[in-house]
Design brief:
With 326 residues, the protein is α+β, with helices and mostly antiparallel strands. It is 34% helix and 25% strand. It contains 12 helices and 12 strands. It has helices at 2-9, 39-42, 44-72, 75-78, 99-111, 133-138, 148-156, 198-205, 237-242, 249-255, 298-308, 316-322; strands at residues 35-36, 115-121, 127-131, 160-161, 165-166, 173-183, 186-196, 213-219, 224-227, 260-266, 269-280, 283-292. It has a 6-stranded antiparallel beta sheet with strand order 1-10-11-12-8-9. Strands 2, 3, 4, 5, 6 and 7 form a 6-stranded antiparallel beta sheet that branches. A hairpin with a 2-residue loop joins β10 (260-266) and β11. The longest helix has 29 residues, at 44-72. 39% of the residues are buried.
Length: 326
Amino acid sequence: MLKILSFLFGIITISIILFSTNSPSISIYAQDNQYYYNTNENNSSLLNELESIKTILENKVTKLATALQIASSLPEILEPPNTSLIDSKINGIPEYADIEKRKIAKILLDQFNEFSSIVFSLNNADVYFVEPFERQLNLTTNNLSFRDYYQVVEQTKKTYLSDAIISKATGRNLAVIATPVMKENDMRGILYGGINFNNYDQFLQSLHLQNNTRLVLIDKTGVKIGDSNENETSVSKESFEKKQFSNLTSFKLALEGKSGSIVEKFDGKESQITFLPYDLFQNKRILLLIQSCNSNGENELNKCIENNKEINLFNEDVLAKLGSFF
């Protein structure tokens, strides 16, 4: 048990170096009542601040993925699962069966409160166990083959970060990090960690942005993962179904790998939207900074751009605390 603890406690001190390339910025012109401008000249400071936030979010998910990867290589997890213990009535094995595997899952939950659950599935996607056990009992399915995270990991044998999904155990939004359990070239199962979106909401809300400014994190389908607006929540089923960002031109440009700013309508108001996409574990995330213009006409919109480009998302004191927020 001490060996297991030493592996997982050591994760906290691991230095993670992320290698990434800058997304291309855009420069386009007024068209169809939408007003664009060259982000290289006018709004690089906001993109730089979004880059800082992106790096923190990347580091966080990388740490969680590293924890799962280390756990997946431990002897207790590598031991072949005892499929004779599976009971379809409880969607997996009993609470006190294969206890050594469950112990590792409990350590992960204890050390990383961003995880809401840990799941181990067989190669055919049948659920072997879920921690906490109550989540296993609440499952409405005992096979995960329909999930994107199972399909990608089964095909690539590499760690994958899912889009937002609605949990079959809680009915709430979450994302999943999935990593294969490999011994040599033999995959013995898949280990999953469910990420609680409350962590993203709390992080973005800790920036204390101005009243006319909102920062959201979304997946490649347009589902919201985190929101700086305290009156909005990212875990509710309504948030999953709303998908209010997927029709934005800024979102579509971000899907193409572009970053920059655009003035377009959001919730019926002209808004300057600064967008930054990034790739992470075989998937994509997008940051959208939405600043209401409260103005009409091209001249007023240009004035809105001039005003917004001077805004700083956060001061030095806030920035210094961000890296340790999680």
